[in-house]
């Protein structure tokens, strides 16, 4: 079987060495030595500052919005459900505006139009979909125009750069997921990268019950810390990341080369200044019968695939305000994600594309 995804497996010898350190120290959580080491190494690897580890990617979005005092936000309808559900769970007033039909990311023109109609929203939450960076320059102009804060859901964008700069350095905060299915993982986990040190310091208190540096209680917080065992997994896997991203990007390029000449398949336009990390391999096919034929053929050849994302979140959460999301609804109805993970080979890609070509 060619699996849709297969999580990275940490080298057990290296992992055991880290776990032995944890057991010897007796420090299992609460900003322990491995937590601090993983923070330092991730900041260095990703080229960022003010990185705060948290226990999952959903809490990363919630803590970022809390630290930035965002109580109402406009977001994208084309993303994994957690982008929106994390806001709603937090009690954040949420509205949707449309995506760009070519990149699948939040559309700056649609956002500008939405804010011109209703300026009361305090923040913007945009996703770098499939690891493809948003038009960060244009979104920044809209945010500045209306004096809004931006949180980027960068769950798919580990190791991605725009013009040589980490995509995590754009906006007021960027959030990462370190779930086992991601390019880099700690089994469960996540991180937030803040633009400003003061926001980072506030968030660090919030994820530790709101306890301040002197031990007194400040604003009510939550427990969102990453424990030492999970940090051990992260430290073990981080050693592999250069080769992992290089391999996944190579597979991604092979897919695009094999499929680009098929007129019935549309591939998303990628940010011209960005690198690939091979997080996902999405294809768009407008014809429903063709979609079903491909899904059936892949299944019959023991190849996994997934409709990802569907439905458009403005449809799933229809009680929330929408400024019109026709592009998202259309694209959500036609996306299929193909297998892509570190344990695949180029030959696997050729098998998958051969089956698709046989249908189309």
Name the descriptors.
Aspartate Aminotransferase, domain 2, Aspartate Aminotransferase, domain 1, 2 domains, two-stranded antiparallel sheet, 13 helices, eight-stranded mixed β-sheet, alpha/beta
The CATH homologous superfamily of the largest domain: Type I PLP-dependent aspartate aminotransferase-like (Major domain)
- Write down the overall geometry: globular
Strand order of the largest sheet: 1-9-8-5-4-2-3-11
Distance between the termini: 22 Å
| Total count of strands | 12
- Structural domain tally: 2
Q: What is the third-level CATH name, the topology of the largest domain?
A: Aspartate Aminotransferase, domain 2
Number of helices: 13
Series of secondary-structure elements, N-terminal to C-terminal: HHEHEHEHEHEEEEEHHHEHHEHEH
| Biggest sheet layout | 8 strands, mixed
Query: Which percent range describes the beta-strand content?
Result: 5-15%
Tell me what you see in this structure:
With 360 residues, the chain is of the alpha/beta class. The protein has 2 domains: 12-238, Type I PLP-dependent aspartate aminotransferase-like (Major domain) (Aspartate Aminotransferase, domain 2); 241-359, Aspartate Aminotransferase, domain 1, CATH 3.90.1150.10. The protein contains 13 helices and 12 strands. The protein has helices at residues 12-25, 33-46, 57-67, 81-89, 108-117, 136-146, 197-206, 228-238, 241-259, 288-300, 313-316, 326-332, 346-359; strands at 51-54, 72-75, 93-96, 123-127, 149-153, 161-162, 165-166, 173-177, 190-194, 281-284, 321-322, 335-338. Strand 6 and strand 7 form a beta hairpin. It is globular. The two termini are 22 Å apart. The mean pLDDT is 97.
